[in-house]
Amino acid sequence: MSKFATAVALIGALFAGNAAAQSAKPTVVLVHGAFADSSSWNGVIQILEKDGYSVVAAANPLRSVSSDAAYVSNLVTSIEGPVVLVGHSYGGQVISNAARGHENVKSLVYVAAFAPEAGEAAADLAGKFPGGTLGEALAPPVKLPDGGVDLYIDKAKFHQQFAHDVPSEQAALMAAGQRPIAEAALTEKSGEPAWKTLPSWFIYGDGDKNIPAKALGFMAERAGSKHTVVVKGASHVVMTSKPQVVAELIEEAAR
Questions:
Q1: InterPro entries in the record, alphabetically (predicted)?
Q2: What's the CATH number where 59 sits?
Q3: How many domains does the chain have?
Q4: Consecutive 10-residue runs of the chain (255 residues): their mean pLDDT?
Q5: Would the pTM of this model clear 0.85, i.e. be above it?
Q6: Please, what sign has the CA dihedral across residues 192, 196, 198, 199?
């Protein structure tokens, strides 16, 4: 092969490599919120993986905003290539903080999620607008060795409060397997949010009883949401009850 032919072949390989890199789909990192776990994303995961996306459903510790964000940040550091960060409920506050400093995070998706401003806490935003009934549905708090408490939703109230559009048998399993959140995490103030510098997408149900729909709409507008989807009648776990519409919005953000 002549030197000219070799050079042409090398240039062709370089362009092919760049095209492949540009066409590679981002990894989707899903972060659950309080009273849920990674299995709440199962329907969304099935759709995304079928459509060719690599997906990681993080096991959010639900201990504090700073430590949970550091946990997700470390996970993002381990991923090569572009990332779409998706947060549900309290997980929205986590991704807002975890994305900072990561050039590979390209977009954020908030699923019935908190998108706090710097200095705001989830508890502040939950009470900013009327309509939320979470406080009335909580079980007696569980004391922790550090003097704090863990919060659970009363199992008898879980279905109607958290997942009214999910079949009762499935909701009963979710209630039994719910992950508690430390009360301190809900009152911890947020840092400078990544939605100020990254494009964001929002989806939520107007039947949400944990975070009032007006609060979710307020946060979406404030964050300059590229596309906000409001699902008629959907509960707080819209990703579980309506996985197709949630997956479609995540894929929109991924493109």
A1: AB_hydrolase_1, AB_hydrolase_fold, Sec-Metab_Biosynth_Hydrolase
A2: 3.40.50.1820
A3: 1
A4: 48 41 80 98 98 98 98 97 98 98 97 97 91 96 96 98 98 98 97 97 98 97 98 98 98 97
A5: yes
A6: positive
